[in-house]
Specification:
- The structure is a single chain.
- This protein is of the alpha/beta class.
- The chain has three domains: 9-249, Rossmann fold (3-Layer(aba) Sandwich), CATH 3.40.50.300; 256-382, Orthogonal Bundle (Helicase, Ruva Protein, domain 3), CATH 1.10.8; 386-490, no CATH class.
- It has helices at 9-15, 22-36, 51-61, 75-81, 108-117, 143-146, 152-158, 172-175, 191-195, 198-203, 238-243, 256-266, 271-276, 281-296, 309-329, 345-349, 356-361, 363-382, 386-390, 405-413, 424-432, 437-444, 450-466, 484-490, and strands spanning 65-68, 89-93, 123-127, 132-136, 148-150, 168-170, 179-184, 205-207, 214-216, 219-225, 246-249, 277-278, 334-335, 416-419, 471-475, 478-482.
- The strands form six sheets. The protein has a five-stranded parallel beta sheet, covered by helices on one side. The chain has a three-stranded antiparallel beta sheet with strand order 14-16-15, with helices on both faces. A two-stranded antiparallel sheet has the order 2-3.
- The longest helix has 21 residues, at 309-329.
- The mean pLDDT is 89.
Length: 495
């Protein structure tokens, strides 16, 4: 829609423009999208059959909304996206602090201006992006911040008495009139401040302290919150919860594939990184699996949740680790490796809340444990179980069917050191030097190209170490694989 040309109230009336409430706008534009088969949100995945239908029903019903869910579940992003359901342009009385509707003004300023100028009253147009207000609930938020209060500076400048309505300084909520107002982390708002929202949600108006004026506000309220049992900082008081008409539960991606899709969409990488670093799907699966392991871990507080930001920052860290290695080696292109997962530890420890047992173990140790579990469980989907293979019986020709035996035998006689900063050529040569390793990879996954085969070879070595088939020692700068007993005597350490 082009920018409207009406500049006065009279011109607006002649154009045929008609007032409608915010909820009517949202409803009408949503109906248009549904009929056109257009999605409600762009870039929101995994909610197509759960959250999105619930949101559509709430909007069609004209409800205020509370998005309830653990951190990193796109609650704020969905709230911000609702702006796209508003009309592109909205007329207001020029100079109005509360976006007065020229055909239905509510402020003393607009009422007086229209009374003085009639159809000559100037109007201006507000884009829908300016009709969204967001406030993070913190303990220091006051009623004056949200609703408003008398402004002594304004009273002095205008030489007005404090009882005059013109000295009112409007808070965020009145300034959001005819728009969308979002309060993030609602439980963090002090109970006495939550009480101030009662009348707005129930009666649709506010009263500024000390004034008889009551403003009939037109606002679409959206709240976001974590479950009450997650936070000790506060809760949504029951009377306020009762006034919020629709509470919609959000959730984490229902499948690993959906999580990977979200992570790939949200990762921020430069064109140089994209050109320089290749991240095979195996590593993307492993990173996503780390988050899944964390959500099921006995060491991680499940009430806190594990944000999707963990996988996003982890993948960014992995890419940066591979890029750093290529730069140091003077290589124009590189492939990320299993060893690069060591670089994602800082991204993990900053994104998980540990229970007491986890705190006793230590955040970094838990991060390494989650990586280990991801390797074990992804390996189980791609290769024969190393534990069962060890117990396999002899075949018809008297040979055991343990597909890993050549690799195990190799490390019984020698050790392999894999420097983290090894060039691509040296890395591939190291994997190829292990008896039976690359033939096994090629046999079971013949579709892999040459660049990925070395990565999968390293994956097999780490998985065999996780299943105690070979030894592994991870120190700063390198990973060493060898005989299990020798590694046990030396200590399988991670640093």
């Amino acid at each position: 829609m082009n920018h409207p040309t009406s500049t006065t109230l009279g011109e607006l009336k002649k154009s045929g423009w008609k007032s409608r409430t915010v909820k009517e706008e949202l409803r009408a534009n949503l109906i248009g999208r549904i009929r056109a088969g257009s999605p409600l949100f762009e870039g929101i995945h995994g909610y197509e059959d759960t959250v999105v239908p619930a949101l559509e029903r709430a909007i069609l019903a004209g409800h205020s909304i509370n998005l309830l869910g653990l951190r990193g579940q796109a609650k704020t992003r969905m709230a911000r996206s609702l702006v796209q359901l508003l009309d592109e342009w909205m007329p207001i009385v020029a100079g109005s602090e509360v976006n007065d509707d020229p055909l239905a003004p509510i402020s003393r300023y607009a009422i007086n201006l229209i009374a003085d100028h009639g159809d000559g009253t100037p109007i201006s147009w507000v884009h829908r992006d300016q009709r969204y207000t967001e406030k993070l609930a913190t303990p220091d938020v006051t009623v004056a911040d949200l609703i408003g209060d008398s402004d002594p500076i304004k009273a002095a400048n205008l030489k007005l008495d404090y009882s005059d309505e013109r000295v009112i300084h409007f808070g965020l909520i009145p300034r959001s009139h005819r728009g969308i107002f979002v309060i993030n982390e609602l439980p963090d708002l002090q109970p006495r401040i939550q009480v101030a929202l009662f009348n707005i949600l129930q009666e649709g108006d506010v009263q500024i302290r000390g004034f008889k004026l009551r403003l009939p506000l037109d606002i679409q309220f959206v709240f976001t919150a974590n479950p009450e049992d997650y936070t000790n900082r506060g809760a949504i008081i029951t009377p306020l919860k009762d006034r919020i008409q629709s509470q919609i539960l959000t959730h984490y991606p229902p499948t690993l594939e959906m999580g990977m899709r979200i992570t790939a969409q949200e990762v921020r990488s430069t064109k140089d990184q994209t050109a320089r670093v290749r991240v095979p799907d195996l590593l993307r699966v492993l990173i996503e699996r780390i988050a899944w392991e964390a959500r099921d871990s006995e060491y991680v507080d499940r009430k806190s949740g594990v944000s999707a930001r963990l996988t996003i920052t982890a993948l960014e860290s992995l890419i940066s680790a591979a890029e750093r290695r290529s730069l140091r080696n003077g290589e124009e292109r590189t492939v990320a490796r299993i060893g690069d997962l060591q670089a994602v530890v800082p991204a993990i420890v900053g994104k998980i809340e540990l229970v007491y047992e986890g705190e006793q173990e230590g955040a970094e140790k838990i991060a390494h444990h989650l990586i280990s579990m991801a390797i074990r469980n992804v390996f189980a989907d791609l290769f024969p179980d190393p534990t069962k293979a060890r117990k396999s019986k002899a075949g018809a020709e008297g040979q055991r069917t343990d597909v890993y035996q050549p690799i195990i035998a190799h490390f019984e006689a020698q050790q392999l050191d894999v420097p983290m900063e090894a060039t691509g050529q040296a890395y591939a040569k190291a994997m190829a030097s292990v008896d039976g390793l690359m033939p096994l990879v090629r046999k079971l996954h013949s579709y892999l190209d040459a660049e990925e085969q070395a990565l999968w070879g390293e994956f097999v070595l780490h998985a065999l170490a996780e299943h105690s088939r070979i030894g592994r020692t991870v120190l700063a700068g390198k990973a060493s694989f060898g005989d299990l007993m020798a590694s046990m005597l030396q200590g399988d350490t991670e640093a």
